[in-house]
Amino acid sequence: PDVVSLIRIKRDNLRPLTDPEINWLFAAYADGEVADEQMAALLMAIYLNGLDAAELRAWTGEMIASGERLDLSGLGRPTVDKHSTGGVGDKVSLVLAPLVASCGAAVPMLSGRGLGHTGGTLDKLESIRGWRASLGNDELLAALAEAGAVIAAAGSGLAPADRRLYALRDVTGTVESIPLIASSIMSKKIAEGTDALVLDVKTGSGAFMADQEDAVRLATVMAGLGAEHGVRTRALVTRMEAPLGRAVGNALEVAEAVAALSGDGPPDLMEVTLALARHMLDLAGIDADPARAIASGRALDTWKKMIKVQGGDPDAPLPRAAHRQAALPAPGDGYVARLDALAVGVAAWRLGAGRARKEDGVSYTAGVRCLAKPGDRVRAGEPVLELHADDPDRFAAALEALDGALTVTGEPPVLPPLIVAQVG
Ligand code: URA
């Protein structure tokens, strides 16, 4: 094959690429025989015309085979992980990994940093004094054996083709493609070596896949890919119309996650976390009640162990922002009917919680606290948000992002269920 013909085939939607063609493409790209601009053109053709099921299976297989696949079979415990497509205030991973580990599974959660308005799990954990995201494979296995759960940066050996392809997609307008997203996420999760996987595919204003039908399609494609590659996979589609919990921002979210592990989590966060935990335990074949693991203190103990194994001090005070400002006063007495997740996510980002470019750092202290959430009663003039920043000059841009983010109604709103669909 030659790459220009492959690009033309996908561009004109003439026929699916064959397994040998896809195999050749990845080898030639790794060797430098196929250039970045040629791969970018092919990605755009795929963005426009898609991949069928056989192409997607082969494509994902090549992404996995571009690197190593971890072997976790020596742990002697069933392994199960969770991946979220990302949301606002989504600190579920921080609670879930130690929670499910405290019930007897091993949770090898290789995770990422935030980009855009959604936070990254590693950025959140790095607000804990001493905590290290990068572990070598031996350290990763040792941490898993000791704590039962590890949340760490995916090493460069896992699905390296995805790293290169994602960087190209990021600068060529080809991120938002269901087959490309599915192969990107699933190749990393399959290479991580987990036996089972639960996906939390977010839908709504603060999600990557705002449209619910798209989210269900993405969930279905990812669950199918997992099954084809021998990973028991189930997906929940959950709503991301309002921030999850009350805290948005790195250290603020760690504090809320610790509260959740201590039995004092906000109801929406607990609903999603416990549902995901039950599915993870089910796929792992473990009969345990995660709510009891929290009530007994075992989940919190596992959290402390997990943080310590990676050099962190779970008892150290979390950093706090130097400046706070009240925002979004309620326009009248009533109930919060809508608090837009995207607007709050963008505000937290502008306050410094997120990064504009991959190379940027984040502020651990910046973020937003939701003083009221959808369904809560408010009085006229009462602020619904509290903004946190180290640099008070950032408040103005955050306030601008929040314009129109709040709806208050006279009657209590009917809130739709958080979990909207299950696949697999
Ligand atoms: N997250 C990923 O890891 N890959 C994508 O393509 C999109 C989101």
TrEMBL record:
Signal peptide: none annotated. Pfam families: Glycos_trans_3N, Glycos_transf_3, PYNP_C. GO terms for cellular component: cytosol. Keywords: Glycosyltransferase, Transferase. Gene3D superfamilies: Nucleoside phosphorylase/phosphoribosyltransferase catalytic domain (3.40.1030.10), Pyrimidine nucleoside phosphorylase-like, C-terminal domain (3.90.1170.30), Transferase, Pyrimidine Nucleoside Phosphorylase, Chain C (1.20.970.10). It comes from the Bacteria. Residues 335-409 form the Pyrimidine nucleoside phosphorylase C-terminal domain. InterPro entries: Glycosyl_Trfase_fam3, Glycosyl_Trfase_fam3_N_dom, Glycosyl_Trfase_fam3_N_dom_sf, Nuc_phospho_transferase, PYNP-like_C_sf, PYNP_C, Pyrmidine_PPas_bac/euk, Pyrmidine_PPase_CS. SMART domains: PYNP_C (SM00941). Its EC number is 2.4.2.4. It is an enzyme of class 2 (transferase). GO terms for biological process: pyrimidine nucleobase metabolic process; pyrimidine nucleoside metabolic process. GO terms for molecular function: 1,4-alpha-oligoglucan phosphorylase activity; thymidine phosphorylase activity. Homodimer. Belongs to the thymidine/pyrimidine-nucleoside phosphorylase family. This is Thymidine phosphorylase. It comes from Trebonia kvetii.
